[in-house]
Amino acid sequence: MYENGQGVPQSDEEAVKWYTKSAAQGNADAQNNLGLMYDNGQGVPQSDEEAVKWYTKSAAQGNADAQNNLGLMCENARGVPQSDEEAVKWYRISAAQGNAKAQLNLGMMYDNARGVPQSDEEAVKWYRKAAEQGDANAQFALGVMYDNGQGVPQSDEEAVKWYRKAAEQGDANAQFALGVMYDNGQGVPQSDEEAVKWYRKAAEQGDANAQFALGVMYDNGQGVPQSDEEAVKWYRKAAEQGDANAQFALGVMYDNGQGVPQSDEEAVKWYRKAAEQGDAGAQNNLGFMYQHGNGVPQSDEEAVKWYRISAEQGNAKAQLNLGMMYDNARGVPQSDEEAVKWYRKAAEQGDANAQFALGMIYEHGRGMDEVFLNQMKKLSNGTKSRLNKGMQRRNITWE
Hints:
Layout: H1 12-24, H2 28-40, H3 48-60, H4 64-75, H5 84-96, H6 100-111, H7 120-132, H8 136-148, H9 156-167, H10 172-184, H11 192-203, H12 208-220, H13 228-239, H14 244-256, H15 264-276, H16 280-292, H17 300-311, H18 316-327, H19 336-348, H20 352-364, H21 370-379
C-alpha cells in the first residue's frame, strides 16, 4: 500500500519497513518485493547483494517472479558471479510455472546460445508461451522468428500478426517492424500511409530506425506531403542518436541545401560521423569533399583514403572515383593498371561512367582520343553517392 500510495501517502521507506517485517516472517511475496526495493534503490540504498539475498529466499519458496529476478542477477553478474547456466536454471524453473518474463528470457538464452546450445526451435517455443500471455517483447521476438524463418517456416503473414499484437501494446520495435512490412507490402497490402502511421508511432518513442524511415517518407513524399524540412527534422533526431544512415542522409541535405541552409561544413560533419561508422556512401562523399576542398582543406591524399575505404566495401561511385585518382595521379602515383582495376569493379556493378571510361580505354588506348580526354576531364571531378531514398527491407533482429 505504501509503495503505490494506495489509501496512504506514498512512501518507499514505509514500504520497505513493512516488507522487511513480513519478509522476516517468511512471506515469499514480501521477500521478492524487498529484493526489488534493494534492486532499484527505493527506500533503501541500492544493493545488488541485498537484492540477491531476498530474491534467493523468495525463489527457494517457489515464487516465480523472484526466480526470474534471480536469473537476471545471475545473467548480468549483479550481486553474484556471472553465470549463464545459473540464469538458465532459474529462468527455466520460473518459466515452468508460467511466468511470461521468464519464458521470454529463456527463449532469448536459446536464441543466443547462452547457457544452453543454440536452438531456434526452443527459442520459438518459449517466445510463443510468453507471447500467448500477452508479453509484447515476446510477441515482437516471435514475429522476428517468423519474419526470418528461424525455428518456424518463414511467414510474412505470421510475422505481421505478431508484430501487430506487440505494436498495439506500444512496443516501438514492433511498430517499426510493422511499418517496414507495410512499406514493402510483405504479409499485408503495400500502404505508404500505414507505413508512415507505424513509423511515426515508433519514431515518437525515440526509435532511431523509425525516425530515419519517417525522414525518408517525408523526403520522398510517400504517404505524406513531401517536405524537406520534416525530412531533416527526423533525420536529425536519428542522427543525433548515432544512426549512420540518418547521419549520411543529413549530410546530403546540408550538401544540397534541402530543408536547411546549404553548408559544406555541416555536410562534412555528418558525412564524417557516418563514415567513421562504416557507411560506404558517406565515405565516398567525404572523399569527394576532400578532393574539392569543400568544407575541409583540399587534400587528394585524404580523398584517396576515403574513396579506398568506400570502394573496398563495394561502393561503385567510390570505385569509379578511386580509378580516376589513379588515372590522373591525384594523391597516388599514376597507374593505368590500378585505374582499370577500379573502373572495372564499378563497371561490373552497372556504373555508366565507369563503363564508358573502361570502354574508351579498351577502344582507343591511353590518352589518344580527344573525346575520351574531354569526358575524362569532366569525370575527374568525382561523383557523389546519393541517398538511397527507397526504403528497403531492413534485417529486423531481436536482441
